[in-house]
Write a structure and sequence with these properties.
By secondary structure, the chain is of the alpha+beta class. The protein folds into two domains: 53 residues; 133 residues, no CATH class. The strands form three sheets. It has a four-stranded antiparallel β-sheet with strand order 1-2-3-4, with no helix packed on it. Strands 5-8-9 form a three-stranded antiparallel β-sheet, with no helix packed on it. Strand 3 and strand 4 form a beta hairpin. The longest helix has 23 residues. It starts with a strand and ends with a helix. Keywords: Membrane, Transmembrane, Transmembrane helix.
Length: 211
Amino acid sequence: MMKKFSIYKPYRFYWTRTYISYAFIAGVVLLILALKHVVGTPESHPIYSYLSVALVLPGIYHILLSVLVVNKYRPLKGALEGHIVFSKDAIEIDKQVYPLSAIRYVVFEGTDWLGDERSDRGFSNFFENTLSQGVENTLILHLLNGQVVRTRFQKLFACELRDVEDTILHYYLHNKLTYLQTVNALCLGDREEQHKLKEMKLHQTEANPLL
C-alpha cells in the first residue's frame, strides 16, 4: 500500500481561543469607553472594578486550561482533505498527477509534525495550546512549464518522509531535489549518512555522466 500524506487546506478565518479572547477584551474596553464618554457613568462607580477584573479573565482561563486539559493540541484551523502520494515516476496531489519528467525540481518547506511542542506566543496564537497539528509543511513543485504548485500537508512525526526514503533518494539522484533538501527531508543528521548520500550521487554520475 502506497504511503499517503494528508493535504491540509486552511480556512480563510477560524475563531480560535486567541481571537475569541481578543474579541472579549475589545468588547470590555469598548464598554468601559461607552460608560465613561457616552453614558457618563462616574469613575467611582463599582462597575469599573468588575470590568477591570473581566479584562484579565482570558489570561486566567488560559492558565486553567493549560493545567487541566489533557489534549493540548492547537486548533487545526482548516481541514485535512485529499492526499499526496510520492512515487518514482510521478507525484500525485489530490488526484492530480504530476509526472516526474514534467517537474523541474521539488522543494520541502517546514519542519513541523503532529505533537511538536511550540513555545512561540505570537499575536495569532497567544492563548493557544503548545502542541502542533503538524500542518506547517509545504510541498512546492516547480514545473518545466513555469507553473509553481504549493501544497500544505501534515506530518505525523518528525522524520515521516523516511517512510518514502527510496523515492526521495530517486528524486535526489535525478536532480529533482538538492543535497540539502534531501538531508533535511530524510533527517540525515549523522555525518556518515550525509557522506553516503554524497557518495551515492558521485557514483551515479561516474556511471552515467548524462544524469
